[in-house]
Design brief:
The chain has about 425 residues and is an all-alpha fold. The protein has helices at about 1-10, 35, 45-65, 80, 155-165, 175-185, 185-195, 200-215, 220-225, 230-235, 240-250, 345-355, 405-415, 425-430, and strands at about 100, 105, 280, 325. The protein has a domain at about 230-430: Orthogonal Bundle (Cytochrome Bc1 Complex, Chain D, domain 2), CATH 1.10.760.10. It has 14 helices and 4 strands.
């Protein structure tokens, strides 16, 4: 806490550090201009000004997040794809969302959740656990970064992607976004924070816009409440059913589900709740989803870390087919799964893990000669990158890694990871 406050005061920036992140609020939402004005590049601020600026940015970012006028079509807001009533993930089962100036441009990947991104580290090719977290001598390989391929590290860089993507919000450049902002009902709030002449400099105004969005997305109450039944259980304030407890056991069993090897399920040594991700990259060989228009081209392959959306590792074949491990918090709310949205049932996802290699004909198409076209979305040259740790690595015809009842139990356990504000009315009230 002290370190964060010192950084705020020295830098004069409240970027990504809303007052709720610090655990309390010192000021009402409306502040005098003296408290929050500092321009896009504010100088040193007092503690009071830093907190006020963070809170003001949070509320400005909230308004922007729900504003469809910031898209080229005028009909798509951030919340259109990141529904706050659906864990800030899509509320549809379509594998990709439509965007662009006329909402007729299909995306390339499934939209991920924006919840629980606050703990994702910056991308590195060589990640080592800290001394109190694990073996600090082990290189865990590529880890961190936001998006499925980890190509940006910060919320303000991530926010730029949908605003300027031709198949998302579809703005042709920063100027178009700023023009829309200058006409928004909250443009006065924008000027109050960033200066009355801010719209005269499109680059500064755009930087202010993504700062506001990223600060809102660091709001603890909205984006990382840690309010699930499992959190209550870990805190000794709730219970799990016998099925859920057994599901947790199988989830963590290295010879069974082995899920917790990547989706960490125990609190950190400092007591921080589990994130249900180690933020690493894995190759899982999810079946090719022909519902994604780009996949109609047999020469197109989404290879994650080595491209095509990320370009700095395009010459690293050992990275091809690897995607970042997402959090499993609120996973029971999802209607499509994995980077390509191929699966639409959480039970099918767990079943795929259990039988990908022992029963590949269940998941992959057949060739004309009747043979199974396994790993059909990954060129064979990259099959060596695929994860073979349990529950993978079995031979066709082997018993599955999990029984049907164990699969049901894991699914039941995953249902305990849904945040209280995402539960239906009576259940939500009971959870509180």
């Amino acid at each position: 806490m002290a370190t964060k406050i010192i950084w705020l005061l020295r830098s004069g920036l409240a970027l990504g550090l809303a007052a709720s992140t610090l655990g309390f609020s010192l000021f009402p939402l409306r502040q005098s201009s003296a408290a929050v004005t500092g321009g896009v590049h504010p100088g040193p601020m007092s503690r009071a000004q830093a907190y006020a600026r963070a809170e003001a940015l949070t509320e400005l970012g909230r308004k922007m997040f729900f504003d469809s006028s910031l898209s080229a079509s005028g009909m798509q807001a951030c919340a259109s794809c990141h529904d706050p009533h659906h864990g800030f993930a899509p509320d549809t089962a379509t594998p990709v969302e439509m965007g662009g100036a006329h909402l007729d441009r299909p995306g390339l990947r499934a939209v991920p959740t924006l919840r629980y991104l606050q703990a994702v580290p910056s991308f590195t090719e060589h990640f080592y656990d800290s001394e109190d977290e694990g073996d600090e001598s082990v290189d865990n390989g590529p880890t961190g970064g936001l998006t499925w391929d980890g190509r940006v590290d910060h919320g303000y860089d991530q926010a730029k992607i949908p605003l300027l993507s031709p198949f998302e919000m579809g703005n042709k450049d920063e100027n178009q976004v700023v023009t829309s902002l200058s006409k928004a009902a909250y443009s006065g709030d924008f000027r109050e924070i960033f200066g009355q002449d801010v719209f005269g400099n499109a680059r500064d105004a755009f930087q202010g816009a993504v700062e506001a969005l990223s600060t809102f997305e660091q709001s603890g109450a909205d984006f990382y409440p840690y309010s699930s039944r499992y959190d209550a259980f870990l805190a000794g304030k709730g219970t799990l059913t016998a099925q859920e407890l057994h599901g947790r056991e199988v989830f963590e069993d290295p010879a069974k589900g082995n899920c917790s090897s990547c989706h960490l399920s125990e609190p950190a040594n400092d007591g921080e709740p589990p994130q249900f991700s180690d933020f690493g990259f894995l190759g899982l060989a999810v079946p090719r989803n022909m519902a994604i228009p780009a996949n109609a081209d047999p020469n197109y392959h989404d290879l994650g870390l080595c491209g095509p959306q990320r370009t700095d590792f395009k010459d690293r074949p050992d990275y091809c087919g690897l995607f970042r491990t997402p959090t499993l918090r609120n996973v029971a709310l999802k209607k499509s799964f994995f980077h390509n949205g191929y699966f639409h049932s959480l039970r099918d996802v767990v079943s795929f893990y259990a039988t990908r290699d022992s029963d590949p004909g269940r998941w992959y198409p057949k060739n004309a000669d009747g043979t199974i076209r396994k790993y059909d979305d990954i060129p064979e040259a990259y099959w060596g990158n695929l994860n073979q740790d349990p529950p993978f690595g079995r031979k066709p015809g082997d018993p599955p890694a999990l029984t049907e009842s164990e699969i049901d139990d894991i699914v039941a356990f995953l249902g305990t990871l849904t945040d209280a504000d995402q539960l239906p009315g009576p259940a939500q009230q009971a959870a509180h």
